[in-house]
Amino acid sequence: MNTQADFRRDLSARERAVDRLLLGDYIRKAEIGAFGEERDVEQTLRFNVMVELVPADAPVGDDVDGILSYDTLVQTIDTVLRDERLDLLETLAERIADRLLAIPAVRHLTLRVEKLDRGPFALGVEIERTARQAVAAVPDLFAIRGEAPLVVLVDEAALGDARLSERFDALLAPGRPVVLAPCSAPERGETGGVDRQIDLLAMEQAAWRIAGRDARCRVIESRTELQHAIDQTCLAVWAPSRIVRRATDPKVRDRLQGRALAEWFAERLGAGDVVELGPIGAAHRLDATGT
């Protein structure tokens, strides 16, 4: 990666001394790609990172605690790969860059990510970023500002209840954000491929049916949409396909259904347990507890 000229172009006389941390030819296996044939297939990725550091106020001597560790580069890449299944190398590179540039010691970086299995060549992307282009802090993928929402599983019986809006009133009364997770069909055995897509689409349809019952509902497909719905004090209704398909755990992508899937989502949100909004009797118990 020949980037030395670019790195030195704007340095003042006081900053002629530049420290860079290098990670070269780091190889990882990961599932990534937008095409159907790239689903459920791990590809070989190669990472090359050059990080320019903020000049130290004083010499660090030979103290390992006084420098940014090489392990930080490796751990950052591993964390991003573990957090979410992505379609694009460009998105992967941006996620890694944002996390590294949130470290105070880092002011500039160049990052190259390549796929090595797509042919007798390498396909990849290279980005260059400075600290002012990155977010000030990188939150956890599903971290939500403010109080963690209450996740409520809505089954078919609840969806057909004529008093559904009143039950939503009870959920919202304590003032805690609420996320509704639809459960549209009886759970069946392990699924995958076409059957899994059919199940997820059924949940998407159920989400829109819920939203059609109450104007306060907003269907959300991503963490960003969820935060916006919470900020607007709306009832968020989770349409799960996008988040489930991007999960790194094959169990989540292919098998979790119903309450188990809602519990996984609640855990990612820091919401704890899941409340079921089932038959009418269950609604009365829910109203009495205020949760």
From TrEMBL:
Keywords: Folate biosynthesis, Lyase. Its EC number is 4.1.2.25. SUPFAM superfamilies: Tetrahydrobiopterin biosynthesis enzymes-like. Residues 21-129 form the Dihydroneopterin aldolase/epimerase domain. GO terms for molecular function: dihydroneopterin aldolase activity. One of its GO terms (cellular component) is cytoplasm. It catalyses: 7,8-dihydroneopterin = 6-hydroxymethyl-7,8-dihydropterin + glycolaldehyde. Pathway: Cofactor biosynthesis; tetrahydrofolate biosynthesis; 2-amino-4-hydroxy-6-hydroxymethyl-7,8-dihydropteridine diphosphate from 7,8-dihydroneopterin triphosphate: step 3/4. GO terms for biological process: folic acid biosynthetic process. SMART domains: FolB (SM00905). It holds the Pfam family FolB. The keyword DNA damage does not apply. It is an enzyme of class 4 (lyase). Belongs to the DHNA family. PANTHER family: DIHYDRONEOPTERIN ALDOLASE 1-RELATED. This is dihydroneopterin aldolase.
